[in-house]
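Study this pair:
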Amino acid sequence: MAKQSIFGRIAQLAKANINALLDQAEDPQKMLDQMVRDYKANIQEAEGAVAQTIGNLRMLEDDYNEDVKASQDWGSKALAASRKADEFRTAGNAADAQKFDNLAKVALQRQITAENEARSAEPNIAAQNDVVEKLKTGLQQMNGKLTELGNKRNELIARSKTAAAQTQVHDALKSIDIMDPTSEVSRFEEKIRREEAKVRGQNELAASSLDAQFNSLEDLGEQTEVEARLAALKSGGAPAPAAIKASASVDEAEFDNL
């Protein structure tokens, strides 16, 4: 029963569809690692059972060979005893002739027993040979699956690392994509643009204030000139044409009243 159970387990594991199992797994890498461990454990157990089965088969074969050899030996002894009996009978010694004939019969009986034992062992030996061959084939298939599992595991780990590296590179490229409005570079550029716009606004404001200051200075200069020339008039001096021009905006009717 134990041998049949192990044989069935070997057949089941050898027929396992690795790809189908991986498709059902939540974490294929962990499942592969566990499957590798299970396969190794089952292979070791199966190897022990197969070794024991082979050992039992070899014992049966040894017993069979001993029975065959015993049958041959007893046949040779029977032949020798029969010839000896014939010699005694030819010599007229009937008593010794009968004695050796009886020995020949005993040898023949033992030969028959050995032959029967050998013959009865043959079906069992054939069946055990068939089981051993199937177990060996199953072990070879299991070792092939173990190699396949190892390759799958290594391939999966390599693909996982490659995918992780590609994702990392993609994220890195995305973070520096200047066309992406969410990227750090784009946000930094927008900040600089706002600062530059602010500086331009400050420059325009400063320019407007400076123009106003110069206009105020011009007005102040003109007023100062007017006051100076008015003082000159009061002191009896002649007004300059510029002063007249400067006061051109005065209502000429007021001059007519002078």
Summary: The CA atoms of residues 17 and 123 lie 36 Å apart. The chain has a mean pLDDT of 78.
